[in-house]
Amino acid sequence: QLQLVESGGGLVQPGGSLRLSCAASGFTLDYYVIGWFRQAPGKEREGVSFISSSSKTTYYQDSVKGRFTISRDNAKNTVYLQMNSLKPDDTAVYYCAALVGGNWLDPHDYKYWGQGSLVTVSS
């Protein structure tokens, strides 16, 4: 079965940190662009960060620049999202997704999706 599985979410206080992991099973992530998206209650899903298959190119939404870092370990078939200086506005369900070709920013172009990991930033 081909799937992505996110982990690492949870409750954290403002200013805290979390690291999300996105592990693939049934296929290798080597050739895929990986995107992290998030969806807050009542809001549309939005792209947060993206990384090319070679890790040479990364992209961050303006609101997370300087706070989030995306990385990948193809040997472990896993992509990470390190989130620092978390804010209440970062509260959302975070999804990872795999893209073969298409628009990095368009969630409809992504082929595989994880089930999501809830991140709650609250005091």
Could you characterize what this model shows?
The protein is mainly beta. The chain has strands at 3-7, 10-12, 18-25, 33-39, 46-51, 58-60, 68-73, 78-83, 92-99, 112-113, 117-121. The strands form two sheets. Strands 2, 4, 5, 6, 9, 10 and 11 form a seven-stranded mixed beta sheet that branches. A hairpin with a 4-residue loop joins strand 7 and strand 8. The protein is globular, with a radius of gyration of 13 Å. The mean pLDDT is 95.
Structural class: mainly beta
Largest sheet: 7 strands, mixed
Determine the number of helices (DSSP H or I, runs of at least 4 residues): 0
Q: Round the mean pLDDT to the nearest integer and report it.
A: 95
**Proportion in helices:** under 10%
Order of helices and strands: EEEEEEEEEEE
Q: N- to C-terminal separation?
A: 39 Å
Shape: globular
What is the strand tally? Answer: 11
| Percent of residues in β-strands | over 45%
Low-pLDDT ranges:
none
Q: Cα-atom Rg, whole angstroms?
A: 13 Å
Topology (SSEs and partners):
Blueprint: E1 3-7, E2 10-12, E3 18-25, E4 33-39, E5 46-51, E6 58-60, E7 68-73, E8 78-83, E9 92-99, E10 112-113, E11 117-121
Parallel strand pairs: 2-11
Antiparallel strand pairs: 1-3, 3-8, 4-5, 4-9, 5-6, 7-8, 9-10, 9-11
What labels describe this entry?
mainly beta; 123 residues; 4-stranded antiparallel β-sheet
